[in-house]
Every structure is written in C-alpha cells, then in structure tokens.
Write a structure and sequence with these properties.
With 167 residues, the chain is α+β, with helices and mostly antiparallel strands. The protein contains five helices and five strands. Strand 4 (75-85), helix 3 (94-109) and strand 5 form a beta-alpha-beta unit. The termini are far apart.
Length: 167
C-alpha cells in the first residue's frame, strides 16, 4: 500500500535515508536528523513531501520529493530526491507503486514532468527506470555547490549592495 507520510513516519524515513546512504557508499554525507525531516515535511509550508510503501503496518520504502518548475513548459514538476525500498522488500512492486503515485500526482495536478537522478553505477535501478519508459538525460550534467565553495560564493554576494536587496 502507498500512502502519504505522516509525522509518526519520520523515524522510519530517517532510518531509510541512512540505509540508502549506506547503499550509495555515502553514509558520511547523511546528516539529516529527525527534526530536519519533520520540519521539511510537516511545517506550515512544507518544502518537501513523502510517500510510504507499507506492508502490514511496516514502512518498507519511501519516496521523498519536492516541486520544481520548468520555465520552458511554464508548469511545476516533481523532483524525486530519494526513492528507496528496503532490500528484503524489493521485488514486490513497491518502487513501481511509489513512482506510479508520483506520476498520478503529476497528471492530477497538471505537472509537466517527473525528474530524478541515479548514480551511474546503479545498474539495477537504471534497468528498472528504463523498463518504465524513463530516459536518461545524457546531454545534461548535474552540478552542486556545497561546503566551503558554497560559502565562498555566498560571500561574494555580501557586498555593499547586499543591504539593498530584498530578503
């Protein structure tokens, strides 16, 4: 069963985030706490959303997503930040059901697309996504600023005109 996440799902979501980080060989990068996730999903104006794949009351997978916007299409889309199904629950259709629910939301709300990224070595996931008709964005390369480079660039915006900019 796929359902919208509830506040009481936060511990399970955080546990699965850590499991996913371990699978992706990046446990050291998973810094989110229960409070971070609770604030993001359940504040007055949520910045992210989540769905749970559940069997007999146990969370076996999750999809965490947020809205993006296509200037070319002029409409929102969904960016799937994380899709994870626990190893013992794989092969039962949870991943497909989570993606189908997000596709349904796109259709229902008039969103133009459903986007996500996958590590290039994650062949099982790539094969699964391709089986659904998803296509890789091979002409696009993702970029990221974090840590010291992000701080350095931000400091360049703090010049005298910074006081005149709206918050």
């Amino acid at each position: 069963m796929i359902r919208t996440a509830k506040p009481e799902d936060v511990p399970a979501i955080v546990a699965m985030i850590r499991e996913l980080a371990a699978y992706e060989k990046a446990e050291h990068e998973a810094e989110a706490t229960e409070e971070h996730i609770r604030r993001a999903l359940f504040c007055e104006s949520p910045v992210a959303f989540a769905h749970i794949a559940e069997t007999d009351g146990r969370a076996e997978g999750f999809a965490l997503w947020f809205l993006n916007f296509s200037t070319w299409r002029g409409v929102h889309g969904i960016y799937l930040e994380d899709l994870y199904v626990r190893p013992e629950a794989r092969g039962r259709g949870h991943g497909k059901a989570l993606l189908a629910e997000l596709a349904r939301l796109c259709e229902e709300r008039g969103y133009g697309r459903l986007d996500w990224s996958v590590l290039d070595w994650n062949t099982p996931s790539i094969d699964f996504y391709k089986s659904l008709g998803a296509v890789p964005m091979e002409e696009w390369t993702g970029y990221r600023l974090t840590g010291a480079p992000l701080s350095r660039l931000a400091s360049e915006a703090a010049g005298p005109e910074a006081a005149e900019r709206p918050a």
